[in-house]
């Protein structure tokens, strides 16, 4: 289910999603105790985040993945055109972008992904990007790529070499890069530096 439809602010949808998760997690304890909250979240908590919009290339533009590293938020999905919060300036971004978490200003980070991005994991100066793509910045990478979080340059030392399919989930857990998707193995634990399957998940 898309986190963002054409013209919907990213921050608003994510906050709403976060609220729904709190309700779900807290539900089992509702019978025994209630949790007091100082106020209800505003219906429009953020007015400064960028907007992904439909264009001649992409209809039903959407954001499927978010990750934050410091003051930068990374957003991936199926989109080509991104407007600033005021909708006065439109920039081209190929399914992956980043913006300031405090101002919403779009950064110069603009990797060229030739397919949708479904998951993102940030780690130090690196970014693991997963999805239904076959190239990243012109480099052949099916479903998973490691890139520089500032420039978007592909780390050519990392290559998962997936034979087919795509990756819909990516997590760094105890020094292993865990991925899931519709590639042949469906679930795998990779070396975060090389992309080699460690065999930890068989």
Protein traits:
disordered N terminus; 14 strands; three-stranded antiparallel beta sheet; 1 helix; 35% strand; mainly beta; 202 residues; globular
| Total beta strands | 14
Quaternary state, please? single chain
Instruction: Evaluate the radius of gyration.
Output: 18 Å
Q: CA-to-CA gap between the ends?
A: 29 Å
Topology:
Layout: H1 10-26, E1 51-53, E2 62-69, E3 72-78, E4 81-83, E5 90-92, E6 96-100, E7 116-123, E8 126-132, E9 135-136, E10 139-140, E11 144-148, E12 167-173, E13 176-181, E14 187-190
Antiparallel strand pairs: 1-4, 2-3, 3-6, 4-5, 7-8, 8-11, 9-10, 12-13, 13-14
What does this 3D model show about the protein?
By secondary structure, this protein is mainly beta. It contains one helix and 14 strands, in the order H-E-E-E-E-E-E-E-E-E-E-E-E-E-E. It has one helix spanning 10-26, and strands at residues 51-53, 62-69, 72-78, 81-83, 90-92, 96-100, 116-123, 126-132, 135-136, 139-140, 144-148, 167-173, 176-181, 187-190. The strands form five sheets. The protein has a three-stranded antiparallel β-sheet with strand order 1-4-5, with no helix packed on it. Strand 2 (62-69) and strand 3 form a beta hairpin. The longest helix has 17 residues, at 10-26.
């Amino acid at each position: 289910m898309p986190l963002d439809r054409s013209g919907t602010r990213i921050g608003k949808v994510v906050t709403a999603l976060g609220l729904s998760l709190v309700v779900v997690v807290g539900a089992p304890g509702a019978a025994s105790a209630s949790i007091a909250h100082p106020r209800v979240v505003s219906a429009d908590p953020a007015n400064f985040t960028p907007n992904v919009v439909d264009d001649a290339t992409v209809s039903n533009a959407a954001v499927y993945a978010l990750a934050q590293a410091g003051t930068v938020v990374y957003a991936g999905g199926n989109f080509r055109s991104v407007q600033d919060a005021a909708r006065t300036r439109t920039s081209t971004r190929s399914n992956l972008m980043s913006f300031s978490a405090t101002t919403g200003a779009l950064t110069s980070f603009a990797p060229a992904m030739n397919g949708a991005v479904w998951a993102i994991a940030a780690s130090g100066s690196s970014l693991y990007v997963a999805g239904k793509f076959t190239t990243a910045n012109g480099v052949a990478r099916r479903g998973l790529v490691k890139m520089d979080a500032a420039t978007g340059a592909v780390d050519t030392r990392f290559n998962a070499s997936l034979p087919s399919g795509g990756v819909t989930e990516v997590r760094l857990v105890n020094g292993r890069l865990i991925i899931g998707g519709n590639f042949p193995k469906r679930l795998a634990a990779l070396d975060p530096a090389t992309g080699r399957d460690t065999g930890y998940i068989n």
